[in-house]
Amino acid sequence: MPFQGFEGPAGSGKTHRLMEAVEQRLQNHPLLPHQKILSLTFMHGSRRRLDAEFKARPILNGKAVAMTIDSFAVQVWNRWRTLAASLGAQIGDFNQTCDACGNLLEHDAVAKWVARSYPVVMVDEAQELALPRLRMISALSGHSAVFVAADEFQCLDEGVDTAPFMAWFGAGEITQLNQIHRTNQAGLLAAGVRLRGLSSPQEGAGLLIRHEFPNLAPFKIGAAIFNSQGSKAVLYPPAGGQWAQALTQRLAQGLHSPKYNIPPIFLSSEPRVDDEIELSMVALGHLEGSTHTELLARIDLLANSPRWMTNVRASIFGSARRMGKMTWTDNELRDLMGRITSNYRAYSGERLRGVPLMPIHQAKNRQFDHVIIIWPPGVPGTAEFKARLLYNGITRARRSCKVFVRTAGLLVEPPFRFAHAQNMAQG
């Protein structure tokens, strides 16, 4: 069956239109009592945002399950592991796990099994669909009603070849969205258009791009944060973590000078789920073939373990009592942690205190009244990739965005100046 898609720049309402299309589908084809909408995402923050969107819509409230595409792949593989073994479809890293799931879903019995529970599937930010993940969605589209939103320019994974996805996406019933709803600030709108065209962004209403002397920069950044009224966040690209941490320490002390009197500002970083899992796995040591009692004993000895680790412990204990699972492998424990962190982040209600500080990658699908971007030397990638990073940062803002570059030379390099623009200026 043909899938329905929405394509447009950041802030054009792709997610909103996606939700409306799913609502219309449910009005025409109501779900049965045992059925749900399956909403697949790539990041845990995106899943939480979609959960909130579903709850805010009476037609969809209580009728959707949002999970990361990787968690879904593991669930399918676990249910069909005997067939997977006969196909040689083994799980491993994310790509291998998704490819194994795609292999399974290409069998009608598996895809129909999913469709009986999830007759509607929606995927936001689908431009991130690498081939193994695309294989899964393509297989599902033959059995479930699939709704997809994407913008190729917002793909921030240089390792993903978007051509296969765009070829598949072009075969759907696609609605183009061109009007920006997130902001009406002329400077923000113009910068978005210019960056998408690989042209130099220029200051304007709502947008400031500056270099400040090293001793003055913390005061200017602190003032930008302190004086912003409404929701706000500090974002940084790859290679910006060290500067971000230095600023965190400096701002927490407060900044005082004859001209500035800025009280302490607390920047709060949300640990990446993958990092938390990896640190926990390292702390637990080699586990291959460990009994559940040995594993529980190691968990009890962990110092400063994440709060969700108590849920992991309870699940291991419960699996032994209810299903007789007495041994665990590294991969099984890693998968368990992935599922539990997914649910924990979605439903624990924990929220960071202070001003959010996060990589631009992690800010995708988020929006704030005010955004402060710190841009250091050494950001990796091509000129286009850097343009995509800056674009994704600037387009998080509804009212204002202030970009601070650490060295003056950055202002004449991509993504602030492009070679063709320099050639035109010289001509």
How is the secondary structure organized here?
Elements: E1 4-7, H1 14-28, E2 37-41, H2 44-55, E3 64-68, H3 69-79, H4 81-87, H5 94-105, H6 108-117, E4 120-123, H7 131-140, E5 145-150, H8 163-169, E6 173-176, H9 186-196, E7 207-211, H10 217-226, E8 232-236, H11 241-252, E9 255-256, E10 261-262, E11 267-269, H12 273-284, E12 290-291, H13 292-301, H14 309-323, E13 327-328, H15 330-347, E14 355-359, E15 368-375, H16 383-394, E16 397-405, H17 419-426
Parallel strand pairs: 1-5, 1-6, 2-3, 2-4, 4-5, 7-16, 8-14, 8-15, 11-14, 15-16
Antiparallel strand pairs: 9-10, 12-13
Helix pairs in contact: 2-15, 3-5, 5-7, 9-16, 12-15, 13-14
Task: Provide an overview of this structure.
The chain has 427 residues and is α/β, with parallel strands linked by helices. It folds into 3 domains: 4-176, Rossmann fold, CATH 3.40.50; 186-270 and 352-426, Rossmann fold (3-Layer(aba) Sandwich); 273-347, no CATH class. 45% of the residues lie in helices and 17% in strands. The protein has helices at residues 14-28, 44-55, 69-79, 81-87, 94-105, 108-117, 131-140, 163-169, 186-196, 217-226, 241-252, 273-284, 292-301, 309-323, 330-347, 383-394, 419-426, and strands spanning 4-7, 37-41, 64-68, 120-123, 145-150, 173-176, 207-211, 232-236, 255-256, 261-262, 267-269, 290-291, 327-328, 355-359, 368-375, 397-405. The strands form 4 sheets. It has a 6-stranded parallel sheet with strand order 3-2-4-5-1-6. Helix 5 runs parallel beside helix 7 (131-140). The radius of gyration is 23 Å and the shape is globular.
